[in-house]
Design a protein that fits this description.
This protein is mainly α. Helices cover 69% and strands 0% of the residues. It contains 18 helices and no strands. Helix 13 runs parallel beside helix 15.
Amino acid sequence: MTPKPAGPPDGGWGWVVAASAFAVNGLSYGMLRSLGLALPDFAEHFDRSAQDTAWVSALALAVQQAASPVGSALSTRWGARPVVMFGGVLTSLGFVFSAFARNLLHLYLGLGLLAGSGWALVFAPALGTLSRYFSRRRVLAVGLALTGNGAASLLLAPALQLLLDTFGWRGALLLLGATTLHLTPCGALLRPLALPGDPPASSRGPLGALGLSLFTRPAFSVFALGTALVGCGYFVPYVHLAPHALDRGLGGYGAALVVAVAAVGDAVARLVCGWLADQGWVPLSRLLAVFGALTGLGLLAVGLVPVSGSEGWGGPLLAAAGAYGLSAGSYAPLVFGVLPGLVGIGGVVQATGLVMMLMSLGGLLGPPLSGFLRDETGDFTASFLTCGSFILSGSFIYMGLPRALPSCGPASRPATPPPERGELLPVPQVALLSPRSPHPTLDTTC
C-alpha cells in the first residue's frame, strides 16, 4: 500500500494535471462561449426566435452545472480518470447527434442534454483533482487551468465563424464533435492522489458523496447564495455577447473580434489574479467580493454601449468587452480557489460540484431571460443591465464571508493552516490566546 504524502505536492505531476484541466476548461466553457455565434444560424434555419434558440446554450450550461455534483460523486467513488474519459465521449456524441437535427428539439437533446451531461462529468472532477495537488500555489494553478476558457474562445470564435461560413452549422457541429473527443485523453492524465484527512469511499453514502452536508457550514451557505445570484448574469455573455455585437452594427467577424477581446482579457486576468491571490496580501473572500462587483459593472458597461457606425469596428464595445473580460477573468479562479478554505481539502471535489450546480440555477435563468428581454425590447441593453444587477447582488452577499470586510484594527493572523483545514475555516478561540498573556487577542472585524 502506497503511503499518503504529508500534504499536496504543490508541483510535480500537478502541473500535468493543470495542463489537463486547462484543456478540459477550454473544451467545455470555451466551447460554450463560442457557441453563441451559431445561434443566429439556428434561428434562421428553424425560423425561431432568439429566446427559443437561447435555450440550446442555456440547457447545455444548466445541465453541465446541475449535474456536476453527480460527476463529483462518481469521481469520489471511482476516481476522476474514468469519469472524465467517459464524459469526453458523451460530449462528442452530443455534437455529432446535433449535426443531424431536424428541429430545435433535437438540438435541445443533443447539445443541451447529451453534451451538457458529458461536460458535467469532466469539469468538476478535473478542477477538484487539481486543487488537491496544490497548496501554496493553488489559486495560481486554478487560474492557469481556467485560462483554457479564454484561450479556447480566442481560437474557437473566429474558427467557428469560418466553419459556419464554409461548411454551414451542420458541418461545424460535426467538426466540433471531433474536437471535444480530445477530452478523453485529458482525463487519462488525471492521476489519483490520496491525502491525509480523506474519508474512505466506503464511509460515504449516496448523499455523502454528493457533499450535501457542506450546506450546514454557515460560511459555505453564504458563499452558495452569492454564487447562485452571480450565476444569473455571469454566463449571459457566453450566449449573447456575439449577438449583442451584431445588434450594435458589427458584422460576423467583428462580433467574433469582440468575443476574442473579452477572451484575451479573461485569460490574462485569471493568471494575474491567481498570482495576486497566492501572495496573501488580501484575503480571498475580499478579492472575491471586489472582482465580482467589477464583473457586474462590466456587464452594465457592455449593455450601455451605443450603436456602432456601419463601417466601424465598434471601439466602445471592444473596450467594454475587454473590461468585462478582465473583471470576469479575475473572479473565476477565486470562486474555486476559495473552496478549500471554506470546506477543507477533503471536501473540495464535492464542493466544486455543488458550486457548479448552484450556478446552473442562474445559467438556466439568465440566457432565456436575456433572450426574452431582447425579443420584447428589440436589443440586448435591458438584458445586460438586468444580468449585471444580479452579479452585483451576489457580490454584496459575499461580504458576509469571513474576512471579506476590512478589520477595524490590527488582527492576529494564525499560522499557515494545514491543507485539510483551509485558511477561511473558523479558527478555534484557543488558537488566538497568547501563551504569555492571560488575556485573549480577538480578531476584531467591522
